[in-house]
Amino acid sequence: xxxxxxxxxxxxxxxxxxxxxxxxxxxxxxxxxxxxxxxxxxxxxxxxxxxxxxxxxxxxxxxxxxxxxxxxxxxxxxxx
Length: 80
What we know:
This protein is mainly α and 80 residues long. It has helices at 10-23, 27-53, 64-73, 75-79.
């Protein structure tokens, strides 16, 4: 675990004090739980979104090597 120092707005600080008193946890514990919850939620959202696009091209007849060879031989690249 690493130690860090942050500056909080008065409203945020007040919220954390309130949550700390209600839960009986230290302010540090409350902050760590909030951060971990946010990270976990973002990770779950990313996994859910990646699951939605996984296999989206399965029904396409697409040859990556052929596409790259065609792209490399294209005159568009020579114009740049």
